[in-house]
């Protein structure tokens, strides 16, 4: 059994890790930390876990984590970068669900996150945990930077078009809609039900922290810096991300048909168990992946014009966070990639 | 492997059976019928099942079902009573999720359901599938009448009080709130999101079909006809039932304390894996059982007065329908009672 | 024009006062205070008011309020009792939407609200602002204690039964469901959309602050202390309260028919413009009063038994707060009672 | 008083007309037709209108409408084109909220709407009822084709950019999100709360009926055929449209700053009471216009790049339907343009 620790067990990504790991056949959840709830039983805070997790929250410190084989950080940004080095030094693998090691440029990181990066030395070593791009590196990794939720949906949706140089990489548009759980489990006015229920809005239009992450990922694939307009929105539901992606076929693009693009997507992801290319004409509805680790993708070319529209949906807490983290863990531990992740979406 | 057939696979209880059975280790879903969608692949109608269920909907007829070991009816009322006899005659066990065999009095059934009962001969043989009351009979049964969603939440909540004759069985009050999936997957004005979203209402105050079913169940336990006021409500969410139950302690009741009642509930359900008595003072929130087969119960005695308040919550589609049906199947087939039902609630 | 001041303009009752007063033909909103937002324009915080309210938030102090004719307190409990005396001394009328002056017993108030009452001397003078009970006193009042949202719905629903001594006043049951805006505009975990959306729960079962207020009001009418079990619930919507009330007809009750009770309700409220008795058999749906000052009531006698069920619905922010406050203001100022309150519910 | 008739009073646009017209000081609602509910009182079907509308639904026929001065069609497509001619012949003005007269090309209309246009002769006479573009023509009009909801939000958002030739009109992108009331009050599976709640999806990606309407409107302004990619989405709320519009500044565009574009929008709409340009950096949230006739617009230029992002929000049932229709009526009748439309959005 793999002994797992979770630092920051009281956020939504933390409790989602618990939901999935509690039924993972090769994992024992040994430590769950929470400064606020230390001393309480996990099931006391999360009655949905009664009977499944018999652990108490403890204070987050290195010593209580040293008996773990793997430690997940489901913490606010800025925490993992202070503890990762100590854990790695003890031979413990680290999977960070926060943003601390996602950007390769520490200076850029500081600009977007507003704090100094205290552990820039580890950035190079960290593997960006998008298995559909970095599978082999992940298998060898000691430190994983799990992708953000928006970046997961947007990159998986754009990848085949960019890898094949089919669209103009200088004018990508990602219009993305997220459920409110993406904002985390924090007492904030803006995510009260009275504020977000029955309403829809854009936010962070001038620049959201996931912009440099997506740009970095797509630029790596394009082999040059891409130009992306990324507009996130908040939609009145709890879970789910729906990315509507727009790309302009490049001049030679007129020669490729939608059918060919569809085939190209299907081939690109044919061995990916968690990326599902829908048949042409399908609707990609976030409910169809709610609670599951799957990314569903549909491709359109409205009126046969130059604009390709890709719909890419995930559950922000699963493929966009906890599920993807466990997928990484499985790969790092030589387990079947979908162990503990065969969860069917909750419909309706 | 148990070969399972599902008649009426396109309603919410049907698709919920599919979600749970797809991952059940001892079951093969062999036949799924749907008059409307015959010929289509199941995953075409339910993209959430892509990769998990590889069956086409077929027309509902006896011959396509004869190779099954067990057939579930997830049909509107009035269908199971026309097919059950033929299946039983062929040695196939039947689990009916509709109301056809729930009431022991065929005449009463006809009054409430507005159609003639075409198969009264089977009513006596049908076992009411509430395992917490009828486990031994269920194990031997050939035909199961699965309880309704409201009756499950209300009976489990009232049982210990009535079995111990602690409350006046003549003035029971059940104020129950249901998510809209309880109304089924039917094109109806009343359950449009524009009609039910952001609004709360009572309905069926003068008499809901689940009233005689609850009364029958509680009267069996009380040993006499109970008097129940049952008011169902529609609450703007998809899944979940919250029953708020009010009972008046009988005169000798002053001698029993809330602590003693709490113990009594815990003892009554100590071997029941799907009934969870919460610690005193707990909140029973429907989200904590969303997607799971568990009934969570909390008991209160406000201001130490004569009125006992019991909060009983379930997911109407799981413990209130498909999950309970599978629990019955497990019992009938000699399997572990929770096989395929270890599903943790989806929070948030 | 009546010069109005609002203390605490950034809560939901404050902004609802602004929505309604902005279009009130006899009112000028002169002062709106907010410690947090002082200096900002109201429309900056509430873009829905752009073009309707041209005032800046100011610090709450007596001197800025002295030019007002009437001051509304839309503040947390404990604020009005510190300022009311000074305003009254200057001849300014006060309408308190908080709980400070609702209970006639200062000691009881302190027990329920957990702080000392600093202004007990004014309690006797304060008129409980339920026009349907206290209209004449309100017209003469200098200080109004506006009823809470739950107490408004529950009292209006029970009144005719109790005034006519038709039900046993010792075992009243009020099972009440509220939208989340009732919890106020405060950064709190419990009312995040991720916590309250798609879920239903009871809370405060052992004792909610509105219990003594309702008990006081109904006891006044009954002429003796009533016995009430009051269970509040949180329902996943923003606005609306649905009270389901249960009363036991007293022995002589058998002689009164539902039709007679219906007539009795209609007569009791025939001159009340904001209480609407629905025809027999109607559904009282909270959406039908969303945004309006109306209380809709429906009366049932399930199966002709002893239990009378009354459904009483209001918008918690209008008839349960801001609308009722303005109704009081109209009465105090000799205006038409519905001035500024002819607002039709927003459906759908 | 203007005598008004409403054909098709039981859809959401019909009941919204009733909500607004009931309080319009110059209007008497004389006739409301409904095939399904003929004979019933309006308030019976819509309890939110109790006390405000004292009319019975009647069968829709010309003779009952001839005493009206103006008739609104809030009907499914294909009805107005059968009755308009007869009403106009009798001197009655017609405001059609359906799509019958929106497209100037009858053949194109038939292609998108799937039925023959039975009254092509009136198309030329019909004025497209977007006051911000056609005010003077509307004042003289006898027949108004009210814009669709999506077209209203998209056109108002793009107009200043296109009128000033600032963006490339060949690659406009409109990513638009609508609440479910836009789908109408029809018994349909797809808009059940269980289907649309807690989920987000795109639909009609290959071509939505509002595409030719928007294209026609913007092309008129551009002076040439524009190229538009329009992707509508369904968001889990009842009311509201949020259009996120993307335009590429043309080469000379580098010379115009965001500040100048902001000024240009403010000047374009400075005399428009129902178009509100928000200050730079504002969020345009649909709740801020819920129930009101206002379109709020915010303009962004992310990272100072070539892409201009315009956020345009309306209430689909008000500025997107009934409110705009009344605005047209006011203009046609020489009344103040905002008469009956000073309604503040319902927040929260």
**Beta-sheet strand percentage of chain A?**
15-25%
Shape of chain A: globular
Strand order of the largest sheet of chain A: 3-2-1-4-5-7-6
Largest sheet of chain A: 7 strands, parallel
Give the tags.
seven-stranded mixed sheet; Dihydrodipicolinate Reductase, domain 2; alpha/beta; Rossmann fold; globular; seven-stranded parallel sheet; homotetramer
What does this protein structure show overall?
The structure is a homotetramer of 348-residue chains. Chain A folds into 2 domains: 124 residues, NAD(P)-binding Rossmann-like Domain (Rossmann fold), CATH 3.40.50.720; 167 residues, Dihydrodipicolinate Reductase, domain 2, CATH 3.30.360.10. Chain A is 30% helix and 20% strand. In chain A, the strands form 2 sheets. In chain A, strands 3-2-1-4-5-7-6 form a 7-stranded parallel sheet, sandwiched between helices. Chain A has a 7-stranded mixed sheet with strand order 9-10-8-11-14-13-12. The longest helix of chain A has 15 residues. Chain A is an alpha/beta fold and 348 residues long. The two termini of chain A are 35 Å apart. Chains in contact: A-B, A-C, A-D, B-C, B-D, C-D. The interface between A and D is large, with 49 and 49 residues.
Strand and helix map with partners:
The structure is a homotetramer of 348-residue chains.
Chain A: E1 2-7, H1 12-21, E2 27-33, H2 42-45, E3 57-58, H3 62-65, E4 70-73, H4 80-89, E5 93-96, H5 106-113, E6 127-128, H6 131-140, E7 143-145, H7 149-163, E8 172-178, H8 193-196, E9 201-202, H9 210-222, E10 228-234, E11 241-248, H10 258-268, E12 275-277, E13 295-300, E14 307-314, H11 318-332
Parallel strand pairs in A: 1-2, 1-4, 2-3, 4-5, 5-7, 6-7, 8-10, 12-13
Antiparallel strand pairs in A: 8-11, 9-10, 11-14, 13-14
